[in-house]
Design brief:
homodimer, 2 domains, two-stranded antiparallel ribbon, 5 helices, 3% strand, flat, DNA-binding, MerR_fam (chains A, B), DNA-binding transcription factor activity (chains A, B)
DNA sequence: GTAAAGTATAGAGTAAGCTCTAAGGTCAAG
DNA sequence: CTTGACCTTAGAGCTTACTCTATACTTTAC
């Protein structure tokens, strides 16, 4: 597929897609005789994965290392496994911290709700969203 | 305490501390007669909290809103509770996504380790870090 | 075959979040 | 009463991650 379709299907700006490619996040982007990019179907998933990792706070460089290790059926399996373990540790740390924050938010929410009720205020949209 | 001590105890650059203050992340920073900042003891915790939230991907603006709601024993309890619920939902979404990523990383790590062993490579630092 | 739409590259511009520099005021030690 | 370590502000500079502009080539539609 051409860049316009990938842009449409991923919601990622075409300039950003070219930037990701330049940064090594998208590999195997072949070109037609007209020099236009021709993305494979799986590019959609790859871009989605990049977006997700980005939202989780990984930098472009980290994402590149991670994704490249993931698709490496190459020699450096031990190195790849090491990288995985490293990222996993980082992910686990984030999960732990987020749990702590959630706990804090939860108790604060309850406290504020109680306060609001005490002041006789409506809680229309307030009570336990989702 | 003065800025040098807060810098030392939090590990956050003094320019950054002033920047955080300007952005409304640090409140009640009083001044002595010499116009020097005089931070209260709890500023250390407050800065630590800012750092943690930052690492979790919250923007300066989001952190300001969140922390100000947390310390508000003011009128807008209902609004504060709503804010808490909102952030909590975002935090929970992140946790879910990170769990998924961890799962992926875990299976990839195992695959790569198996590959490495199959190739007769050493796994010195590799096997399940932490 | 020409206009409109799509693609290419190179490089400028933007926003967030720092990080540092310059120029100057404060204060304790010697 | 000066030296040196601290503090102040204003504003410049830097990095990351886009986002856009300019210029030019290709394709599609009429």
């Amino acid at each position: 597929m051409r860049i316009a379709e990938l842009e449409k299907r991923t919601g990622v700006n075409r300039h950003t897609l070219r930037y990701y490619e330049k940064e090594g996040l998208l590999l195997e982007v072949h070109r037609g005789g007209n020099n236009y990019r021709d993305y494979p179907e799986k590019a959609v998933d790859r871009v989605a994965m990049v977006c997700q990792l980005k939202d989780l706070g990984f930098s472009i460089r980290e994402i590149r290392d991670l994704l490249n290790a993931l698709r490496s059926d190459r020699i450096d399996c031990a190195e790849g496994a090491y990288l995985m373990a490293e990222k996993k540790a980082a992910v686990e740390k984030k999960i732990r911290e987020l749990r702590q924050i959630r706990k804090l938010l939860d108790s604060e929410q309850k406290r504020l709700e109680a306060s609001a009720v005490a002041h006789g205020l409506s809680l229309k949209r307030t009570a336990t969203t989702r």
